[in-house]
Amino acid sequence: MPVDRDQMLRAAATLLSRKPGAPMDEVARAAGVGRATLHRHFAGRDALVRALEERGIAEFGAAMDAARLDEGTSEEALRRLIAALEPGAQLYGFLVNEAQLFQEDVNEGWDRLDGRIAAFFRQGQERGEFRIDLPAAWLTEALYGLLGAAVFAVQQGRVAANDFTYLMAELLLGGARRSVTA
Prior knowledge:
Layout: H1 5-18, H2 24-31, H3 35-41, H4 45-67, H5 74-85, H6 89-97, H7 108-126, H8 136-155, H9 164-176
């Protein structure tokens, strides 16, 4: 029976988002394969994490495309982005917190995504919809941080999974939204 690499990556992302230090034999069990099979596809933990990173970059970019960040108000676009990120949130949460990804040279894929998100926040600032006293880079980091925190809170049962998009959007927008004072 052929082994589905995509299924192995999904199982690894699910496990590692809950238990980042899980050993490869535990990842193999979660994926429903033997350790040797897992190693045939991923030479070790670094190779597995790199494959997850590639997948995460591709999915995150696709979510950004699906969110149509240039349509409507910045608030509407941010809500669409968070909703589009939700299906892959476990993977992104793991990747945001996986320190080894940031120990080497900067990844061009992440740089592109960071640039796109920061440009989105800058555009919202230029439109007068987002606060201008917070750098777009900080708003980008806040999005990543909230994503990781929301994944953890759902996994721990501290918040309902159905509230993921709402909770993230309200907290981020509450801090990012420019208030108009009369």
